[in-house]
């Protein structure tokens, strides 16, 4: 047992849990993780009593037969809806890539035009300097 002291629990002793990881026998890509620890509270009633109590109260316990049924139960979405959402997201990603590619081409064209404009301005400035400054320097040193 491990004692952890915080302001909230005022030194309550917490049991240490043991983690056990194993591969699922029917699907090696799946892992089964279980934790074991000793508990200080009373054990819940056996499973059959819980199931019987649930049936009496109108609660239906249903175990999915297939992977597809499990997918249908997840968030109320069917497998087809989940598949369509991924397809829609993939389409949006493709559209975004296309838009960004077009913007990159446009930006490159704009920058090229600006570079040409700056080069022309530099040539004009150089011609102006040659016309105005050099004759002045010739007069000064003559």
Mean pLDDT level: 75
Radius of gyration: 38 Å
| Structural class label | mainly alpha
N-to-C order of helices and strands: EEEEHHH
Low-confidence region ranges: none
Number of strands: 4
Oligomer: single chain
Notes on the protein architecture:
The chain has 142 residues and is mainly alpha-helical. The chain folds into two domains: 1-37, no CATH class; 69-142. The protein is built from three helices and four strands; from the N terminus they run ββββααα. It has a two-stranded antiparallel ribbon with strand order 1-2. Strands 3-4 form a two-stranded antiparallel sheet. A hairpin with a 7-residue loop joins β3 (18-23) and β4 (31-36). The longest helix is centred in the last third of the chain and has 63 residues, at 79-141. The chain is elongated, with a radius of gyration of 38 Å. The termini are far apart.
